[in-house]
Amino acid sequence: MATAHGTSVGRLDEIASTHARLREDAAALDEAAARAATVLPGWTRGHVLTHLGDLARAFARQAEAALEGRTVEVYDGGRPTRDASIERGAGRPVAELLVSLEDGLGRLEEAWGKLGPDDWALPCAYRDSDLLATQMCWWREVHIHYADLGVGYRVEDWGDALEEHLVDYLLPRLPDTRTTVLLPGDTARRWEYGTGAPTTVHGSRNTLAAWLAGRPCERLPKAYGAADTLPELGNWP
Quick one: pLDDT at residue 228? Predict the structure, then answer.
C-alpha cells in the first residue's frame, strides 16, 4: 500500500525481519546480561525489553479496538502507568522478560495481520492519529531500542529509509532560535530547521539520525558557522 508515509507493505516486511533478529539475540541473554546498563540513563536491558513488550501490546490493542470501531488509551492510566510497568517489570528473571517480549511481538503481529490496506487509516488514540502512525512509531522504537540493547545490532545497521525518516521526524528537537542546516555527505537530501544565525552540520545520514536520536555513534557530526558547536537538542517530539 502506497501512503504519504511511504510503502507500508515493504516497511511491515522489514519490521517482521527485525522481530526475528531481535528474538534470536534476546534469547541469548543470561541473567547478568539482562541486568547490565544500557546507554539510556537508569535503564538496564530489562527495562528496554519490558518497554518493547509493553509498547507492542499497547499498539496491538490500538489495532484491535480500531477494527471494532473503538478507541482506547495507549496505556490505561497514561504515562504514569507506562513508567510504573517498566520499572516493575525490569527486574524479572530473564525467562520472564523473554516471555513478555514474545507475547508483545506475537500479539502485535497477529493484530496487524488482520488489517487490510485501508485499515491503516482507521483512527486510534495514539496522538489522536491513525493506525499508520502506530506503525511508524513502532518502526522507530523497535530499531532504536534494539540498538540500545547492545547485543550486536548497532545504530550503524539502520537502513537508509529509517535514517531519513528519523531525521525528518526529529528535526523539532533542534532549536528554533537558530537556523540549523543538516548536510549529509552520502545523499542529496538537505534539511533546514529554525531561524536566525545559521549553523551547518555535516555528517553522514546515519550519524545525523543517531545524533538527533540521542544515541552514541562512531563519529559525531561536525558543526560549522555562526556557532561551531552542535545545537543543544530539545525534547523528543
Answer: 82
The DSSP bridge partners found for residue 67 are none
- Percentages (nearest 5) of helix, strand, coil residues in the chain: 55, 10, 35
Q: Which residues contact 54 (CB under 8 A, 6 or more apart)?
A: 75, 82, 85, 86, 89, 100, 104
Q: Which CATH class is domain 160-225?
A: alpha beta
CATH class, range 2-153: mainly alpha
Please, which residues have CB within 8 angstroms of residue 3's CB and are 6 or more apart in sequence? Answer: 120, 132
Q: Residue 55 pLDDT more than 90? A: yes
With 0-12 / 13-18 / 19 or more C-beta atoms within 10 angstroms meaning exposed / middle / buried, residue 128 is: exposed
| Pairwise CA distance, residues 134 & 64, whole Å | 12
Residue 192 CB neighbours (<10 A): 14
